[in-house]
Amino acid sequence: MLYRTSGQFKTTYESDQALFPVKQDALLLGVILLAAYVVFPLTASEFTFKALLVPVLIYSLAAMGLNILTGYAGQLSLGTAGFMGVGAYACYKLTTIFPEMNVVVALALSGFFSAAVGVAFGLPSLRIKGFYLAIATLASQFFLVWLFEKWAWLYNYNASGAIEVRTMEFFGIVITGPTATPVTQYYFVLAVVTIIAFAMINLTRGRYGRMWKAVRDMDIAAELVGINLMRAKLTAFAVSSYVVGIAGALLVFFWKGAAEPNLFDIPLSFQILFIAIIGGLGSIIGNFLGAILLVALPVILNVLPDTLGLTINSATMEHVNDMIVGALIITFLIVEPHGLARFWALIREKLIIWPYPH
Amino acid sequence: METLYNILIDPFVQMYEAPDFLMQVLWEGLVSGVLYALIALGFVLIFKSSRIFNFAQGIMVVFAALTLVGLHENGVPAWLAVPLTLGVMYVLAVGIERVVLRPLVGQPDIILFMATIGVTLFLIGFGEFVFGGENKVMITEALGIPTGALEFNPFGGFVLIEEKDLTAVVMAVLLVFALITFLNYSSMGRAIRALGDDHQAALSVGISLSTIWVIVWFIAGVIALATGIVWGARAGVSFALEVIAYKALPVLMLGGLESVSGAIVGGLAIGILEKLFEIYWGQPFLGGNTETWFAFILALIVLLFRPQGLFGERIIERV
């Protein structure tokens, strides 16, 4: 009833291949965007911004970057956090070397640094496949974190060894640093994520997306039909690292405010990978669903005992949290290995034929 | 020129001039290499028999060691604590096979890999919940491991070999021999290798997949306990031990994912080379702590020339 696609006739190839061939999809997206741009900022508290909304956006952006590489191009990567770090440190250096530079420009440029590093570490993918490649990407993870620690130039020879974000303005509005309000930061992150998500949806629908999918499904066959493997894999690494790098810069500049090298250690890589896999490999919307689940879960688990009137000390809670997240990951993989995005697709199919079973 | 000399020649001059120090470094490297090899063996066994890249191997080491120490702390004597810990590892193996692996049979490799990361997270939480997160001391003496040190004076120098390291090496060698004998000469071992060769063929001649998986995971648990004991005796038992699991990964790349001998050779080579690099190049030129990444970069370079690792099976791909 609500989700009836019949009667929406496509008379041209363009309308059939449009971003939203079904009216209801566009409507749904409109509702989500309205909620994100209008409803949340009006209703959310400062805590919600800091603990839920901004992290969800940043993690989904990082997972989106990883999904380009792992979900679309089929190259398993465990080094996401390292590339996020490159983006963050590049943005930090750019804004300290050129203090006049607009934040947006610095952000966009820092992505290119992580893209370059990503391509360099992606070169082995031309020879190495599968789990061997996954371990090879761990090399970048460990090497980069070590570099962030030892190369004092990167953090401007701070005694603490950490990078701290100073106050910066965007056309007169303070958007980074301790004085920035969460709402402005949220809006900025939201705008960046919206733009990149739109670009990625279109990119994966187009020539490059099809190239990557062909490589993912079987690279030798893809090569035989005339796809340049080197180009496909390296562009996947470049685009993925670009997005991941920007996510890293956002993470430090618009959420944490300061970062030590160990922020970009391997647990972050795994968290991003979890989001991408639980959300669904090879989908864009899945990243958001996965991020919502994995960010909200610990927050809920922390709040839950209080509302139930139980007192559990925070250390125990943390351990139980780990257990529950681990168990949930396994459960999700067993119930739906294709992730939450597939869940949504199934629900949508059911809605279309509702109230009939088939 | 000066820098080139410092980097390319000088370290070797130092090695020549202080052979006793070099021997000490080599010994330290060998001991950590043995441990890397042990962890890598756990990985290889599971990968060979089930194509599962078991990320939880490292946490199984910590978990086994914690269980042992935890039992001993609660008044269980050491001779009873070891078999009890083995019992716990067996229960763990059965549990993982029942709850995690069986429902996921036939899924893509990456899904199974993610599931083992889920197991890792669960075990971290569970271990901390039961045993607490603080660092514990391995019950070295209660287990009868000697703690003294031997001194040697080769070339008029001075080399110190700790007895617990020596025990570790001897124990590892015995374990590896037992394992190789088991794999090569027992019918169960042959079944494991058959399963590694071809799942369907092995199933069709009546080898039970789930039994073998439980056994393989249990063996991995035994190896984990041995590794936990010897590493715990060196560095204490805590969740920081988990990082050594990451060290086993380049060993696997170097040696090949399905080669037992590759895991051993790769482990020893990486243990020794990373120590040499750290002492003679890392600390003077790069600010130290190069051990976190050296093994990975080394393995990466080797893989560029041999994509299946030094001892791995040749990868044949068909369209």
TrEMBL record, chain A:
A GO term, aspect molecular function: branched-chain amino acid transmembrane transporter activity
Recorded superkingdom: Bacteria
Membrane-topology annotation of the record: Multi-pass membrane protein
Keyword Manganese: no
CDD domains reported for this sequence: TM_PBP1_LivM_like
Membrane-crossing residue ranges in chain numbering: 26-45, 51-69, 101-123, 130-148, 186-203, 234-255, 261-281, 324-345
Pfam family, one: BPD_transp_2
One annotated Gene Ontology cellular component of this protein: plasma membrane
Primary residence: membrane
InterPro entries per record: ABC_transp_permease, LivM-like
Subcellular location(s) per record: Cell membrane
Keywords: Cell membrane, Membrane, Transmembrane, Transmembrane helix
Protein name in UniProt: ABC transporter permease
Organism this protein belongs to: Pseudovibrio exalbescens
TrEMBL record, chain B:
Location(s) in or outside the cell: Cell membrane
Membrane topology: Multi-pass membrane protein
UniProt xrefs under Pfam families: BPD_transp_2
GO cellular component terms attached to this protein's record: plasma membrane
Keyword Cell membrane: yes
The keyword Cytoplasm appears for this protein: no
Gene Ontology molecular functions: transmembrane transporter activity
GO biological process: amino acid transport
Residue stretches spanning the membrane: 25-45, 52-72, 78-101, 110-131, 166-185, 206-231, 251-273, 285-305
Alphabetized UniProt keyword annotations: Amino-acid transport, Cell membrane, Membrane, Transmembrane, Transmembrane helix, Transport
Family: Belongs to the binding-protein-dependent transport system permease family. LivHM subfamily.
Protein name per its UniProtKB record: ABC transporter permease
